Amino acid sequence: MTDRTSAIAAAIAAEVRLLDPAVRASPALLAELLHPDFREFGASGREWDRTAIVAALTEPGGPAPRPITTSKMRGVRLAPDVVHLTYDSETDGRRAHRSSLWRLTGDTWLLHFHQGTPYPRAQQDPNERP
């Protein structure tokens, strides 16, 4: 495996781990994956920072994290310490196009920025033939 593909594989593994309901329910596990300067533009339209997203995801008495299905995950290494991932997600019938920037910090890939853009179920995949 080349250095380029190993960086992409590491970012994908970290993204998949971040989507695990058990990780999303744990402030400590989330903190291991989020860069201190983390920012997100959520599919809800809300902007999140690291503190706010950890609090929202792990709120005592809040709803349990739900499984997230992903598809079309792919990545590109933009710089020696930056990987950009894109994929689609579905949770409880809600779909979103996702974009994540992972940054190598020390020897760990941390999520630096994430954006989710909702799209309707009826939207046709541009790669599919009619």
Could you explain how this protein is built, in words?
By secondary structure, this protein is α+β, with helices and mostly antiparallel strands. It has one domain (3-59, 69-118): Nuclear Transport Factor 2, Chain: A (Roll), CATH 3.10.450.50. Helices cover 28% and strands 43% of the residues. It is built from 4 helices and 6 strands, in the order αααββαββββ. It has a 6-stranded mixed sheet with strand order 2-1-6-5-4-3. The longest helix has 17 residues, at 3-19. It is globular, with a radius of gyration of 15 Å.
Shape: globular
List the total number of helices: 4
- What strand line-up does the widest sheet have? 2-1-6-5-4-3
Structural class by SSE content: alpha+beta
Main beta-sheet strand count, sense and barrel state = 6 strands, mixed
- C-alpha-based Rg, rounded: 15 Å
| Number of structurally distinct domains | 1
| Overall mean confidence score, pLDDT | 89
- What top-tier CATH class fits best? Alpha Beta
Order of helices and strands: HHHEEHEEEE
Estimate the strand proportion.
Answer: 35-45%
CATH topology call:
Nuclear Transport Factor 2, Chain: A
